Amino acid sequence: MKLKKGVPLIDQHDQFGFWGEKFGGSFIPETLKKPVEDLTEEFKKLRKNKKFIKKRDYYFKNYIGAPTSFVKLENLSSHLGGAQIWAKVVSEANGGAHKIYNATVHALLCKAMGKKYIVGDTGAGYAGKMLSMAAKKFGLKCKIFMGAKDIKRQKPNCDAIKKNGAEIVPVYSGSQTLVDAVSECMRYWVSNCDNTHMCVGSTVGPNIFVKICGWSTAQISRELKVQLKSEFKKIPKKIKLINCVGGGSSAYGFWSEFIDFNKKQIELIGVEAGGPEKSKLHAAPLSQNAKIGILHGAASYVCQDNEGQINKTESISAGLDYPGVSPIHCFLKDTKRARYTYATDEEALNAHIMVTKFENLNPSLEPSHAFAEAIKIAPELSKETIIIVNSCGDAKKDRDILKERLGKN
Ligand SMILES: Cc1ncc(COP(=O)(O)O)c(C=O)c1O
Fold first, then answer.
1. Which of 105, 149, 156, 244 is the most buried (most CB within 10 A)?
2. The overall pTM is greater than 0.85
3. What domain range includes position 27?
4. Ligand 1: nearest atom to the Cα of 91
5. Nearest CA to ligand 1 atom 3
6. Does residue 152 sit in the same domain as residue 290?
7. Domain identity same for 291 and 230
8. Per residue, what are the HEC states of 326-366?
9. How many distinct structural domains can be found in the chain?
């Protein structure tokens, strides 16, 4: 199992859609064969089409607001000592998180395929909010599937979805979180694929959805590469790129331009949800050595019991509360190109408090997991080491959880 240089990771799968022969694939019912093939063909064509790329870049710049800024967290760095800590402030993107890149590309694909309806899943509410924004922008009718537990804990994003004119379909099955929302959304698509396009909100699902999402979020690392060269004149010698990992779309987007670099120069660190300290539940399939299973149309490491039933997960962060993970991250783990660890709910909360105290940043609970790892390792590292955290979401959506846990507005 080897990574290829010079080939985007999203394209390093075999003819059956597997990365490293084990991860990914397209486990879909017969009814979806044709729409998935059509989407695959359309994407293959459009990603090489200069007009389409121009349109994408136009909306990335003029609608999403690319590039987002790259800033040094001077107060946090001097408080901790050791490495310099920087942030790529992706939460500045229109809507407040990276999910807008994938949503915009899916809306453009939906239009190109002549479909008028678009559906999608959401956990933290950002994927849903962004899809509803893109649907409104491009004149599409939109339905968002969301677990009932997440509807309660992410109210600000639900309000935004409704304000954008989209319908929220509450999902009451299973744990009433992201995993159930994705299942229900896929079930809906099976019966409505003739006139409806489906957007999967992360780099998960059947092969083509992993590719589209990764292709969309890769914008983040293209920007960062330019910003690093402009800030340091060349790519520095010791960098650590830290990103939270739920399905894995922000991490892939943040890393994609840097995967070919030597890991001694650029280390890739993914941080999963370790869950509450006192609980055995977590949402960390990579760092807790879960076994390979099939979830939502693809093979990946999945939190499961001995009979292969999906385990219940728990995390303070709705966006990371998912038992599976992208096949491309499974491949990065097995090839040892990336290192995966986890942060507990308490560590993420503390990181959120510390970052907001020292800096003019308000990271949501998902990137707060990545900040927790940065805070842990920075003091032991040299001043020449540059830690960059992808601050991929804004905490406005976490208002109620933060109030409940920290007892203030
Ligand atoms: C702000 C934010 N960060 C991270 C995630 C995790 O998803 P992914 O791993 O696909 O980036 C989510 C998911 O909803 C999110 O909203």
1. 244
2. yes
3. 22-60+99-214
4. 1
5. 366
6. no
7. yes
8. CHHHHHHHHCCCEEEEEECHHHHHHHHHHHHHHCCCCECHH
9. 2
